[in-house]
Amino acid sequence: MMEQWLESAPSWSNIALFFGLGALFLAVVLTFVTYAILAERKVMGFMQGRIGPNQVGGRFGLLQTVADVLKLLLKEDTIPKAADRPLYVLAPIIAFTPSFMVLAVLPFTDAFRFADIGVGLLYYIAVSGLTTVGVVAGGWASNNKYALLGGMRAAAQMISYEIPLVMSALGVVLLAGSMNLVDIVAAQKDVWFIFAQPLAFLIFFIAAVAELNRTPFDLPEAESELVAGFHVEYSGFRWAFFMLAEYVYMFAMAALVTILFLGGWHPVAFLGWIPGAVWFALKFCAVVFVLIWFRATFPRVRADQLMEFAWKVLLPLSLVNIVLTAVVKAWFF
Amino acid sequence: MSGTDIAFFLLALAAIAGGVTMLQLTNVVHMVVALVMTFLGIAGLYVLLSAEFVAVVQVLIYSGAITIIMLFAIMLTRHHRDEKERQTTGGVWHKAVAAISVIAFGLAVYFGIRRLDFGADGSALAGDNVKTIGKLLYSYYTIPFEIVSVILLVALIGAIVLAKKDGKEAGDK
Fold first, then answer.
1. What are the helix and strand counts (H, E) for chain B?
2. At a CB cut-off of 8 Å and minimum separation 6, what does A140 contact?
3. What is its EC number (chain B) (predicted)?
4. Which positions ≥6 away from A306 have C-beta within 8 Å?
5. For residue range A224-272, what is the model confidence (pLDDT) as tens digits?
């Protein structure tokens, strides 16, 4: 149904339709962000033998994040006197906009997807790289040594881990024969790529955690050494924008892992009567849970270990994976 | 005027505005951010020409990687913000010559490309952009492709050698 709309001639009703769908999707993503933050606090609380938020909105703290966002809205918006004002204001926007742009190419089910472009995977990686510019600009514009250090670390980390991320995804592209995310999901009808490409999955997942700046790779915002990293000077809604971008990327990355390795909306064996959207949601939630689990259990790596791990372990392994995949594909397919 | 024309004007405006803003700004970091706008505008123009792959690579390499490296280089080196140094030198004659040469260049380019025939419309290739580029690169253009990779390798090794030497000298002192 969506495909017909995408290919129909442009008209005002069409624009209104897509605006409505976009707004609906925005609401879905914002709901996810709200409850992902709550889930993170709850799951981490249970793993650490605490209770987690349980006051606002019933026994499970269901309105805790809503209250937090309201508080952020009402907070005073401070701009340091020595900060570079125009860039300081612009940086959260540069960091946040790409996080929503990447959502356009993700196919959630065979009916519900927005853009169907041939280089979908590359588009995701290219556009998500723009966020780094915002992070570095924010860190520099704050005119604070901790913010600058955090911004530098973020840039170095994101550039380093983007390479194994792309290289490991290449194995999937080789097997699927396409960079179109819809075709990649279609190629997993029989075998999910997590089974065909276990090494690529491991590398991709590690690099994805690093791209998301989450523990054990959360050096850009390491509380104990950098106060809060690149957003230390930000407050109120500008700070909320950085956080929102981070959690929207968590949404996008979990969806991307589901699409690339877990078979997207394809069901498990005989359970085909459950609709594809439910399958996608289940796999997606599993990925998000693993991300939270990582955060609660792993210690942070050191800066030098971080770089060595990317360049000396992940990159060679992903190159080996590409060669292996090419050999397998040439001989057995 | 079709939608493509409107999109072209907006993207071209973004690219040119980014470039002009970059020339007007005095702060180097601001200039890099303005440059990102130019890169993105150009990427949009590639999309209009149905060259999706080139557009995405433009964003990946230029707006992402190269901008970050430039920001790194700028932030890690000391630079004085001397307003005096940037004041324009030269009088009316200087500016007049510059203006005339800009106009002459614009006219030359306009007359040069006005009757240029770009051959067949490439939008038929839009569907499998990547496949076509890949096939051409590894068949017809293999040798240039390999030469480029060797040059990049040489640059990489050269960078390592330069960095190593710096470290040793610093260690001696």
1. 7, 0
2. A84, A87, A147, A148, A151, B29, B71, B75
3. 7.1.1.-
4. A157, A160, A210, A217, A219
5. 677 777 787 888 788 888 888 888 988 899 989 988 888 878 887 777 7
The token duo for B10 is: 């907006």
A-chain residues near B52 (CB < 8 A): 117-119, 123
Question: Of B130, B152, B145, nearest to B56 (Cα)?
Answer: B130
pLDDT of residue B150: 94
pTM for this model (two decimals):
0.84
Rounded distance between C-alpha atoms, residue A91 and residue B32, angstroms: 13
- CA A201, CA A196: separation in Å to the nearest integer? 9
- Of A73, A32, A68, A30, which is closest to residue A238 (Cα–Cα)? A73
CA distances from B45 to A73, A245, B10, B13 (A): 38, 27, 10, 11
Angle at A146 between CA A140 and CA A149, to 5 degrees: 65
Residue A265 has which token pair? 């909306």
Q: Long-range contacts made by residues B74-83, C-beta under 8 angstroms, separation at least 24?
A: B74/B28, B74/B29, B74/B32, B75/A136, B75/A140, B75/A148, B75/A152, B75/B29, B79/B28, B81/B26, B81/B27, B83/B26
A132: chain B residues, CB-CB within 8 Å: 64, 68
pLDDT tens per residue, range A34-89: 888 888 888 888 888 888 788 787 777 788 888 888 888 888 888 888 778 888 88
Residue type, A274: I
Nearest to B33 among A127, A137, A162 (CB): A137
- Quote ipTM for the complex: 0.79
CB contact under 8 A, A129 and B75: no
| CB within 8 Å: A84 and B130 | no
What is the token pair recorded at A317? 């392994």
Distance from CA of B116 to the nearest CA of A (A): 30
Average pLDDT over residues A104-112: 81
* Candidates A133, A157, A165, partner chain B, best to mutate (most B CBs within 10 A): A133
- Start-to-end CA distance of chain B, whole Å, equals 68
Q: Is A127 on the interface with B (CB under 8 A)?
A: yes
Put simply, whether B30 touches A (Cβ < 8 Å) is yes
For A285-295, the pLDDT digits (tens) are: 889 899 888 88
